[in-house]
Amino acid sequence: MQSTSSPGQPPPDVPGWSPGGSLWGGLGHLLRHSSPLSQQLSPEAAADTESFLRTQCKLLIIGAGGLGCELLKNAALSGFRDIHVIDLDTIDLTNLNRQFLFRTKDVGEPKATVAADFVNNRIPGANVTPYHANIMDFDKDFYRQFHLVIAGLDSIDARRWLNAMLYSLVERDDEGNPVQETIIPLIDGGTEGFQGQARIIIPSLSSCFECTLSLFPPAKNFPLCTIANTPRLPEHCIEYANAVLWDKMKPFGNSKLDTDKPEHTNWLFEQAKERADHFGIKGVTYRLTQGVAKNIIPAVASSNAIVAAACANEAVKMITSIANNMDNYMMYNGRYGVYTYTYRNEKRPDCPVCGAPALVKVTAKGESTLAEFLETIAGHPELRSRKPFLRTSTGKTLYAAAPAHLRKATEGNLDKKLEDLISSNMELTLSDKDLPFIRTVYVSFI
Amino acid sequence: MFRLKQQAKESRTRKETGVHATRAGQIRVQKDVSELDIPPSTEVSFPDPDDIMNFNISLSPEEGYYASGTFEFTVHVPDDYPHKPPKVKCTTLIYHPNIDLEGNVCLNILRQDWNPVLSLSSVLYGLQLLFLEPNPDDPLNKDAAELLKRDRYEFQRNVTIAVRGGYVAGTYFPSARRR
What we know:
The structure holds 2 protein chains of 2 kinds.
Chain A: H1 25-32, H2 43-56, E1 58-62, H3 66-78, E2 82-86, H4 111-122, E3 127-131, H5 140-144, E4 148-152, H6 156-168, E5 186-192, E6 195-201, H7 224-229, H8 234-249, H9 262-279, H10 286-294, H11 301-320, E7 329-333, E8 339-343, E9 360-364, H12 370-379, E10 388-392, E11 397-400, H13 404-410, H14 418-421, E12 426-432, E13 439-445
Parallel strand pairs in A: 1-2, 1-4, 2-3, 4-5, 9-13
Antiparallel strand pairs in A: 5-6, 6-7, 7-8, 10-11, 10-12, 12-13
Helix pairs in contact in A: 1-2, 3-11, 8-9, 8-10, 9-10
Chain B: H1 24-34, E1 42-45, E2 54-59, E3 71-76, E4 87-90, H2 120-132, H3 142-150, H4 152-164, E5 166-168, E6 171-173
Antiparallel strand pairs in B: 1-2, 2-3, 3-4, 5-6
């Protein structure tokens, strides 16, 4: 986005913009007034912040679905202009009730593209760049260009991946402290029926997604014995077809179950129906089969709106400093009223992503043996690992002191030279029966 | 509070310390494996030492109905571990109330009661328990379960035949005798 105006002045290409006036005037107002909750900015600083938001700030929104549509709309109307959006999905007819950037004619089109076009046409000054792709298709250089990421994802896997990716972008200075400019905050929203959450993750400073992974209720699973012997619900019959019959009957050769393929889902449906008839259970439908096999949870538009509003609110606060951010997790439950509560998730010291301390640097001679290197590790003051299980970051097992079978399988490496096993400046992952944490060992050859 | 207005991000010598994104599950498995508490009756083996997400368990119960046999299991740990439980299959054909003839294992912690604070050691203990105390109230092999409830001496006889190698209720069980 080009802006030729001086900071704080209305960009000439944006009709209706004036400080204190219509479209984004409210933000200018907030920036120029003091309140008990934030310090008053000098006029220069206020203008500077506005200019940053309009001309420099790059925002990444992940997902252009239920939350994504809301997030895009909120962000663009709040004054973010350079917005990028990733979504791998295409528009389905059933999305239209709540994903308001899409119309009937858009069914089958990529969500990211249609959403971006809609916002660009509707909101003056918005410059949304769409990517019809998977978040995992992009590398560190892509993510590094953003100032802030807001995610409206629907899977735990994708969140874990994104969390670890943003964490991996954090660089450290010589004392091992995170370098501020390399920290990209993540605002993560999520909804499930009438419930939702919004949280702020500041990689390396706040608790990360992986820290609190165990707080998620486990995926709903029916006891195998029930679905095999005493089914009572239509879901039991579908789960039986899914968990037992597919592997047993291999209806499509060796191909894995793909619930996006109608013929696969249809096969599940027919098998489940047959089983339900046999046990006198009513209610197995194609729709329910889809729901159970894909684990579909009904989406509630108002939950999306509330959670997206909280996310956008935090994004604006973070970029402009008009108020402090929430710390750091908000839960919302709209099931029996409107209940929200905000509390701080703490960092978990043994978190596999952010809990490892700044990596431990070890130098070694390339021609020394792995056995000699293990002695170095055993004597290293920050490691003191005597029963090491050492793997490279590329997934090769170098040595495992336990269990016995793995030790025997890797003993042969002990006499090998380090330079034949790894290269210099490589990261190794070290765990040890007697060490509470995993360590990352950074080996340089001397 | 964290303030975001940053300067242009100049390139600097990269000293990235983070773990690679897809490896969070693997790192947890590495931790679990190094902390594995292997009971004396159990052996754990890795067909490919570099692939720690797939391994085998060989169980030779020291007491109980199955004391004379050795039973093999494969364990596959999914990438989204520990959010999802490991997948365990019994590769030895076995006459057992909680294991069917396809090798599916009915153990609560492998399905409905799985919880990310559990570990691979919990799975080993769970399998142990299954052999020490087969649970007829939660059957996968219904015939075996009913027999265990009705007449445990008859049940023991069937187990012994199956472990030694022979026909039980029309199914041939190859020998699973302890090596």
